[in-house]
Design a protein that fits this description.
alpha/beta; Rossmann fold; SIR2/SIRT2 'Small Domain'; 2 domains; binds ligand BJW; binds zinc ion; Sirtuin; protein-succinyllysine desuccinylase activity; zinc ion binding
């Protein structure tokens, strides 16, 4: 049996699958991965600094504009065949009384636009701006607006609804992810380098519990050592082949 066939069999028989995704999931939709973005620059600014509390405090307009551009870029692209295969898997599983729960590190909305319900956005969303003072949430479309709008309630600054280094993950997102992992009997890890904590501890937790892990990634990652089956290919090409 090939690895693809073994993976397809595990997926077809799992009762409670967790799908854990990273930036590679959206790469074939045209969204650069986080580590690809680090190689490039944005108008001569380092993305690592832009995506940090320090960068935000130093220049809120600059950081807001960067996120607004990224939100606009995401709006212009479509979910890829990998996103669509995962959404179809969840529908097929539900008919059989089985469950598929998606945990993503991605701040885009491509899983949702493909038809998946996302159990947890661990690192927040490009489309969930909020006031940095009173925390009042603003509409998704507000994230697309430049220049940076102010909070209509307290007139303080809105901020992107993403999680920067050194910030705590949203409590609900972390709880939902932890619950899903505690209950799963299969994990599919797709397109993540596995270097960012605490997200990367989730596959570790599943592995400790003896849960089989399928990794889909053209390159080895920090999580490859946990994988029962490693499918060395891209998300959009590999997922439709293993999801029957
Ligand atoms: C394909 C493909 C294709 C390509 N198909 N695959 C030691 C222990 C524990 C924690 C820490 C520690 N040292 C420091 C920390 C804390 C820190 C951390 O983890 N740092 C590490 C870098 C060491 N973590 C945090 O700060 C977190 N908070 C926290 O820990 O709170 C407690 C605390 C508070 C105070 C002090 C210390 C602790 C918060 C982390 C927030 C991460 N936020 C970001 C930015 C979001 C906003 C934005 O997008 O601008 O989230 S960083 C960035 O990395 C983004 C991503 O979600 C995240 C993960 O990246 P991902 O998805 O893995 O992408 P890449 O680009 O790395 O990899 C892409 C992969 O795809 C590659 O493997 C490719 O091969 C593959 N690929 N094409 C399939 N077609
Ligand atoms: Zn406010």
């Amino acid at each position: 049996m090939t690895d693809t066939e073994r993976a397809a069999e595990l997926i077809a028989h799992a009762e409670r699958t967790v799908v854990f995704t990273g930036a590679g999931m959206s790469a074939e939709s045209g969204i650069p991965t986080f580590r690809d973005a680090l190689v490039g620059m944005w108008e001569n600014h380092d993305p690592m600094t832009l995506a940090s509390p320090e960068g935000w405090t130093a220049d809120r307009d600059l950081v807001w504009d960067w996120y607004a551009q990224r939100a606009n870029d995401v709006r212009r692209v479509d979910p890829n065949d990998g996103h669509i295969a995962l959404a179809q898997l969840a529908v097929a599983a539900r008919i059989d009384g089985r469950a598929v729960r998606v945990i993503t590190q991605n701040v885009d909305d491509l899983h949702e636009r493909a038809g998946s319900t996302v159990a947890s956005h661990l690192h927040g969303s490009l489309f969930a701006p909020r006031c940095e003072s009173c925390r009042r949430p603003e509409s998704a479309d507000t994230a697309l607006i430049t220049p940076r709008p102010m909070c209509p309630l307290c007139c303080d600054s809105l901020r992107p609804g993403v999680v920067w280094f050194g910030e705590l993950l949203p409590r609900d997102a972390w709880a939902a992810a932890s619950d899903a992992v505690a209950a799963c009997d299969l994990m599919i890890v797709i397109g993540t380098s596995g270097v960012v904590q605490p997200a990367a501890s989730l596959p570790e937790r599943a592995h400790v519990e003896g849960v089989p892990i399928i990794e889909v990634n053209p390159e080895p990652s920090e999580l490859t050592r946990l994988a029962t089956i490693r499918l060395a290919g891209s998300a959009a090409e590999t997922l439709p082949r293993v999801i029957g």
